[in-house]
Design goal:
CATH architecture of the largest domain: Alpha-Beta Complex
Number of helices: 10
Number of domains: 2
Number of strands: 18
Distance between the termini: 16 Å
Structural class: alpha+beta
CATH topology of the largest domain: 2-enoyl-CoA Hydratase, Chain A, domain 1
Strand order of the largest sheet: 1-18-17-14-13-4-5-6-7-10
Radius of gyration: 22 Å
Order of helices and strands: EEEHEHEHEHEEEHHHHHEHEEEEEEEE
Length: 348
């Protein structure tokens, strides 16, 4: 596919023989590269950014995208990674840490904002974590959307967490007052037994992944197990914000971020937020098109991102939206002759 310049604007689409205009988000590599160069000079080492929009998440395709960046960098003595993410797949986080640690001897994570769930797992793979005033990690207990999970009012499967199930059992036991009975018998009409088993298995997997990630730089296995246990079971909410003070308290090698570095990261976040703005266009009440940029990774001279390119149609009889004509893909941005050129990055 020949490279072409892409900027903010409109994209012409054909729908039922009619031409429609869909919003396209901007690719602001010229601006981000200036900030990354300045940040790298301040830190004295290479910088890699990993940014998710509100629609994006950590996924297995990100591993291959990360490899595309690291492959050109080669083995590095030190690397700093800026992470901004609400989470995603724990398994993908483990694979990303494995890839980073195979290529980097000393890894540092910068967390100026949210670094939650699977992103917290990703941060655990660093030798040290620097957190800004608005930064927070989170608990990593796993919730699961199973094929047999309950259905909500919009006919979508809902996620079920192991903590929620254990709390139901505990409350049942505390308030039964010796009457007895099996709490699972009351649960089964609402949550399928196989879904309950899958959630329990997922929770054990989360603990194992945390311990494995920590082992890349933490030789004390008992400490790794203790930290994993706290992150998986000691918080009453999955989104409980673990600030710098508490991160230190649970045993993480966390430090206060320099104000100058924090300001540069906020500048980067603002530019990425403009790139990751909602780019969904409604054609009518049942049809729309989405061109939003979800995930962004960047180093000096290289930027890759995952962009949606698909139609959405509302099936009223099923009470749900379905995707059509999905051409979403990873894209690669390069600056050539002073212009940002975009080509497709083939990731499988």
């Amino acid at each position: 596919m020949p490279a072409k310049q892409v900027s903010a604007g409109k994209k012409r689409l054909q729908r039922n023989g009619k031409s429609n205009t869909a919003t396209m988000p901007p690719v602001l590599m010229k601006k981000t590269q200036v900030v990354i160069k300045k940040l790298s000079a301040t830190l004295g080492e290479p910088v890699l950014t990993y940014w998710n929009s509100t629609k994006g998440s950590i996924c297995h395709n990100d591993v291959v995208g990360l490899y595309a960046l690291l492959r050109k960098s080669g083995k590095l003595e030190r690397l700093t990674v800026f992470i901004k993410s609400d989470g995603g797949s724990p398994q993908a986080a483990l694979r990303m840490v494995n890839l980073l640690r195979r290529n980097v001897k000393h890894l540092t994570v910068l967390a100026p904002l949210e670094c939650q769930s699977a992103a917290t797992m990703l941060a655990l793979g660093a030798d040290q974590i620097f957190m800004g005033p608005l930064a927070h990690l989170s608990a990593v207990d796993t919730s699961l959307t199973h094929d047999l999970s309950p259905i909500d009012r919009d006919n979508d499967r809902v996620s079920v967490s192991n903590d929620e199930l254990l709390r139901v059992i505990r409350l049942w036991t505390e308030h039964s007052k010796g009457v007895g009975g099996n709490p699972y018998e009351a649960l089964y009409p609402y949550v399928h037994p196989l879904a309950i088993g899958a959630v329990d298995r997922s929770s054990a997997l989360s603990t194992r992944i945390c311990e494995e990630i920590l082992s890349y730089h933490l030789e004390d296995r008992s400490k790794a197990s203790e930290i994993s246990g706290k992150l998986n079971s000691e918080y009453p909410s999955h989104s409980y914000p673990i600030t710098l003070r508490e991160a230190k308290r649970i045993g993480l090698n966390a430090h206060e971020m320099d104000d100058k570095v924090n300001a540069m990261l906020f500048e980067l976040n603002e530019i990425y937020s403009e790139m990751g703005q909602s780019a969904s266009t409604d054609f009518d009440e049942r049809n729309s098109h989405d061109n939003s940029i979800l995930n962004i990774m960047e180093t000096g001279g290289q930027l890759i991102y995952f962009q949606l390119d698909k139609d959405w149609h509302y099936r009223a009889e099923e009470r749900r939206w379905v995707a059509l004509n999905d051409k979403s893909s990873w894209r690669k941005a390069e600056i050539k002759s002073g212009k940002v050129e975009i080509s497709q990055l083939h990731v499988r």
